[in-house]
Amino acid sequence: MSISIGDIRCFRPALAREARDRIDLERKRIGQAITELLAGRPHASVWSGPAALAAFGRNADAVRVLAELANRLAVTAQVLTHLAERMQACLELVRHADHRAADGGGWLNHEGQLFLPQPPAYLDPVLVAHHAKREALLREEVERDLLQAQSLARQTDQEASTRLAGAAQPTSVMPPFVTAPLPIPTPPLLRQGEYVDPASAFANAAWWRGLTPEEQCRAIREHPEWVGPRDGLPGRARHQANLTLLVRLETAAAGELVDVEHRHYGSQTAKREDLIWKTQRVESLRVVREVMSQPDDVQRQLLLVDDSGPIVRTVIAIGDVDTAEHVATYVGGFTTTVRGSLRRMDRESKQMRAEADSLTEGDVAVVNWLGYPAPQWAGVTISRASVLGEEVSSGSSDELATFLNGLDAARDTPVHSTLWAHSYGSNLAGHALLRTVALDDVVLFGSPGVPFRKAEDVGLKPNGLNVLAAPDDWIPKAGPLFLGTPPLAIPGARRLATLHVKGMPNDLRTAAGHSEYRDAGTLSRRNLVAVAAGRPDLVIRAGAEECRPTGGVQGPAAVPSGPVPLGPTR
């Protein structure tokens, strides 16, 4: 049966619950009648003979018929309860789509057709591209909500039809009253083969919204593997599920490490390589546990833990991504690993979050996204994993785009989302930006190059693409030989200050080389924090001295010397 959005809008769960209550009342009355029949039946020691046997038989028949009727009513009441809960969830999905459409200045008609106002006739191609990307994101989210509502309604209708038809069957084939809950609707696939659709975050969010509160709790408890790695779900739900998965992974990894010593190998080299991988896996999971267990009274959310690939991947938020008004996601570069980098990243991000919080009235969350196999020294000369190529960055960009979309999809109100990307991670970020991804601001620092040439290629708002490049960092100068366009050469990209010059705050120092951009007390870190906090008025652009050509690609023309505060961009 085809169920339209109009059909869903017309459904009234309250009427189904009212019918359920009336049926349940009749079932209780029948139960009382059965009790009275059983209580009023004389004992065989008091009454015996043919008449007694006939009476006992009639009494038993009446009890059986009434019990059968009570069972049918119980099944019907259960169906109506389930129908009301499921259709309530369908209505909430449609209402969520209505609210999203209204937030975008549009509206949905009765049948779910989306109408959006004509965009202004922008002359700025960056504004045109930004408007188009925002509209594409809105259409994607609304469509996924409505598709899930219709799918859930059809499934609910089929389940109700099957159960009610069974309740009408003869006693021998009629299903008994079921006290156990019905199965949780299966979530969407996480991957389509090797491909991850960035819009799947909206489908995941719609699936989660379509579950009843009881089913959401059951999904976390009974199927943590459905919840933990799924972008688009609330951070609190993913955190609970991933803590369970972390225990499972740690137990399995420790067991496999012990098995290495007792397993037969064809060569000692193979055994040594397996031992190294298993040991690193155990150590990486131990680092995740250590970071999550720090006694520092800082809220952390474990948004991903996965050891199914060549490395352990994890995503950890400092703060609450469900409620924070600003979320900054940090992507590291060359040689980044959970085992070797997570502790330092967590320490720096915790400090930067506190600094960002001090600049805004709203709450800030910082996410350390170690969700890809960053190139390592061992793979420099290997094409598939080399830092000199884009196979790793382009191949992992869909995961990053899906995560960023999920931050918005999981919430009722959009979040101010910033992406910090360092070194090779900025090339990955560039590939992610070419997808339909929800982002407000991007800061690329120490970038070796990106896969686009114009700001309008990625749909960011004007002044949304920011670049940090220390004058003595050779990566932004040499990187473009291998990895695309230098960000400083992109029209519309803003170069932010890393070099302390006369007139700047004395408590800020120059970030030197390739690895100090996030160091405490640097001007570059102050700029990163100000962008993440949504404070463009506190961001300082690079002066003429920093922009002076010193070899390699330096980017756009220099601006006047000294600090240049940026005006509001939102």
Explain this structure.
- This protein has 570 residues and is of the alpha/beta class.
- The chain folds into 2 domains: 5-178, Ferritin (Up-down Bundle); 303-565, Rossmann fold (3-Layer(aba) Sandwich), CATH 3.40.50.
- It is built from 15 helices and 12 strands.
- It has helices spanning 5-10, 13-40, 50-103, 125-167, 200-209, 213-222, 224-227, 235-262, 268-292, 338-357, 391-409, 424-433, 475-478, 523-532, 544-547, and strands at 107-108, 114-115, 300-306, 313-318, 326-331, 364-370, 416-422, 441-445, 465-468, 494-496, 540-541, 564-565.
- It has an 8-stranded mixed beta sheet with strand order 3-4-6-5-7-8-9-10, with helices on both faces. A two-stranded antiparallel sheet has the order 1-2. The chain has a two-stranded antiparallel sheet with strand order 11-12.
- Strand 5 (326-331), helix 10 (338-357) and strand 6 form a beta-alpha-beta unit.
- The radius of gyration is 30 Å and the shape is elongated.
- It starts with a helix and ends in a 5-residue tail after the last strand.
